[in-house]
Amino acid sequence: MTPDFVIGLARQAIETLLLVSLPALLLSLLVGLVISLFQAVTQIQEMTISFVPKIVVTFLSLLIFGAWMIEKLADFTREVIQMIPQWIH
Length: 89
Hints:
The protein is mainly α and about 90 residues long. The protein has one domain. The chain has two helices and no strands. It has helices at about 5-40, 45-89. Helix 1 runs antiparallel to helix 2 (about 45-89). It is elongated. The N and C termini lie close together (about 10 Å).
């Protein structure tokens, strides 16, 4: 195992992580932005107003994209496990 190989594998793992987490994080960010604008316009500064909708949207995004996320993670894991014999030789 060379350092280039380890760095390449780590890069692929990080790319997979970012791809899988993107839907939930992006939707939470958008909801947080909309709620922040609403709070700025109305001058309501209640923490639960921003917290609860972001939690709900995050859970909904996990329900909607969960199967896709698991599929991507399983594909990456399967690929890594199948490559183990080649790395040993």
